[in-house]
Task: structure prediction
Amino acid sequence: MADKRIDLPQGTLDLLILKTLALEPQHGWAISDRIEQISKDVLSIKQGSLYPALHRIERRGWIKAKWGTSGNNRRAKYYELTKSGRKQLEAEESTWRKLTAAVGQILETAQG
Amino acid sequence: MVSDLLYRLRALFRRNSVEAELDDELRAHLEHQVEKYVQSGMSPEKAERRARLEFGGLDQVKEECRDSWGVRIITEFGQDVRYGLRQFRRNPGFTAVAVITLALGIGANTAVFSVVRAVLLSRLPYSDPDRLVCITDVFPGVLPSSLDNLVADPDYLHWRDQNQVFQSVAAYGQLRGLNLGGKDELDRIDATEVTWDFFPMLGIRPALGRSFLPEEDRPGGPPVVILSHALWQRRFRSDPKLVGKMITLNEKGYTVIGIMPESFHFPADWGPELFVPLGIAPNLNWDSPSFSAVYVIARLKPGVKLSRAMSDLVTINRRSDKALPSPFSPQMHDKSRVGVVTLHEHLLGDVRPLLLILLGAVGFVLLLACANVANLQLARAATREKEFAVRAAIGAGRWRLARQLLVESFALAALGGAAGLILGAGGVALFRHLRPPNIPGLTTVGLDRWVFAFIAAITAFAGVAFGLAPVFVASGLNLDETLKESGQRTTTGGAAQRLRALLMVSEVALALILLTGAGLLVRSFVRLTSVDPGFDPQHLLTERVMLPLEKYPNPAQWTPFFQSVLDRVAGLPGVESVAAAESPPLTNDCIQAGGEVEGRPGWQYIGDCIISPSYFHTLRIPLISGRDFTPDDAGSASGAVIVNEIFARRFFGNKDPVGRRIRLGGPQGNWCSIVGVVRSARHLPLTTEPSAEVFTCGVFWSMTLIVRTTSDPASLAAAVRSKVQEVDPNQPVYDVATMEQRFSQAVAPQRFNALVMAIFAGMAVILAGVGVYGVMAYSVTRRTHEIGIRRALGAQRQDVIGLVLRRGAALVLVGITLGLAGALALTRFLSNLLYGVTFRDPLTFVAVSLILTGVALMASYIPALRATKVDPMVALRHE
Result:
């Protein structure tokens, strides 16, 4: 079965994680499940690659971790956006929008 | 960022719980995923497999997570250390040799640096010591050991009253012995007279009682005394009520007014134990009937430079000389110059060169140790080439390999440093035990944080110094070649060989430089001990007697006292003859006085010594012409003097001086006629050449008894003392020593220098020998194959030995040549410590070169012999 999903560009995983956590604190599996659902199977993300990213972001202080209990009574590590994480998200979001707008524009013009 | 740091620290130090959390987190993820699939109808086994597949390699994910924690470099470092230590355990021989070598180098450095730190680098224990200076008159042409640093009283008063550069100017007198109410040697206490502002200027207050008052520091002031802490403890059992009580000094009562703190010493740890006021008359000047001389120390006003102080004092000298000229001629006392040096320089100026030389010497020893360990590492790196190749092949980067080697080197250095610390502490103890007379302040030597910092620094230096060598070789490694190689034969390139040769050459050179230095010092010592003193030192006992002037104020009392002592001692069984002299041989107490020689205009410096008639006979100093003193000459106005040979030659050339006249003691002195000439003997310290001396017959209030005995002189010490005390039961006798002991004391500094340098040079030679052996042995191992072929083709035993020795000898000769050049450049710094040899003494240079060449060739000969035992068949099959 050939996989038609596209690989995630470098560095965008962080943005997706931050955005997902902006709604509410989540544990790792829930984050990956949500990104998978929302991206409607377009993006190919190895579930394992989520964790190094989570730990790296935690070290930077954008999210913080807390152990809690998940819906089906399992111990799970919940991640929560911090104040500086929120700022980082805003900055990354606006960078992303500018970038995609610019790239989109170039593609449009080139086609025309 | 703080949170970042805390995160990393947690990852580092709470490693186990962080790892457990990682496991939990990942497991929770998989369980959630499995549950999701099971709920959608999958069988548990299938769900599990699918979840794992989607997740990716679990271990790889974990590894990537660990990367995210940002502590990988440190945890890998831990692995490197553990791996390195495992390597050490696997090669105990290599590790032991390397650690011992390093420990020697680091230990020697630790010991010497501890001394340098305590003696040279610490501040003097007085308040704001950097502003304390020592001021001296300049007496050109005087033997440096006699009038050195003394200042005539009037000069001191002029400077004190007229200067604009000092906060205060204090003075203290020469050490003198006072008899503290008893009659054995222990009762003679070194005392010094000080001005009232002496202690305040140093910033030290007595621990008990008070300091001197200005009104106590005047001629005829009240008899008050301040004691050192040590004396108070020793003689008065730390009596807290001693202040205010009377003690007896020279049979006169003194009131104790203060006890100094335990930490106070001046000028060094052998300083005086009693202080009394100096009491110079305030209006003393050059026209006063008599004046004395003092040592002057002063405290500069803040910000005043030494040069400015010097010019201020010279100005004062000029002004006062114009007002009232001093009686000294410019040749005797150069008033246009004043010596101003910091107190630190004054006390330690002489020690600095010696300590710096020792520091340089141990620095060389450390370099040698590093070169040796580098050599060992190189040889080991060669046998480990396979290991590195394998590690590189399975993905270790060059940097990782280099780091591994550096980590191992540092671990080795750390082990060596720890062992060196222990050796260094032992070295410090040895230093103290040797008690070098030329180094003050040794009691404060110890291992403090500066010494620890120094050890850490040289250990790190050593780690880099020998750690780089194998890295250098390993980084030049050709992977494919090494892996293809079979067996033990290695392919270390030319670079490693050149490096090894370079190390060997530098080891030989360094060892030669040290050996030359030691050789020069040892030869100086030998020369000094074989100096002909001009008298027969065997079977001589000396004891000093100093009459208290308070009890014997009249010179007429001195003659009968000493005459009856001499008579009684002469009657003792075992005494061959006895004499008395103002200053015993080999001390620098001989007074340098001005004198006038008939027919020669101007004043001359002449050594002047008062002796008893039997002096030359007792010391066996031969008479060259004229006659010896007779009892009739003693104390009489006959005006007979005897001069030594140097005096005769200097003032009368080849003519016989007998019958000529000289005048001592200033223009008021009497003309005395020379009745005899004796051979020159060494009255001053051995290192000083004999000077022109005049002997007069008589007694002084302080005399040394010199007894020639028929048997062991030390056994008569108590008997001689009892004879003195038969004459006056309260008279102490002190400084009892045989002449041989005095000789030993006189050469103690040179003995210390030679011994310490010889120890370091010995270490250097051993290290160099081991180094040469290592290089040659390695080269023989490496060439086993070649030697086997040569043997198979018919090379004889001596051909093989020649083959190995030729290469060894070539390198050794290069090392010797470089070492000689280095020694020629460096030995000049030893000049001041040498006696009787120049710093380019050819004999020493030749001798040490031969010794070192011999050692190095021996070290190459052993591997050469081993090379002859190579069995051609085995060597060839080796392939």
Observations:
- The helical segments of chain A are 12-23, 28-38, 50-60, 83-111.
- The first strand of chain A starts at residue 6 and ends at 7.
- Chain A has one domain: 8-111.
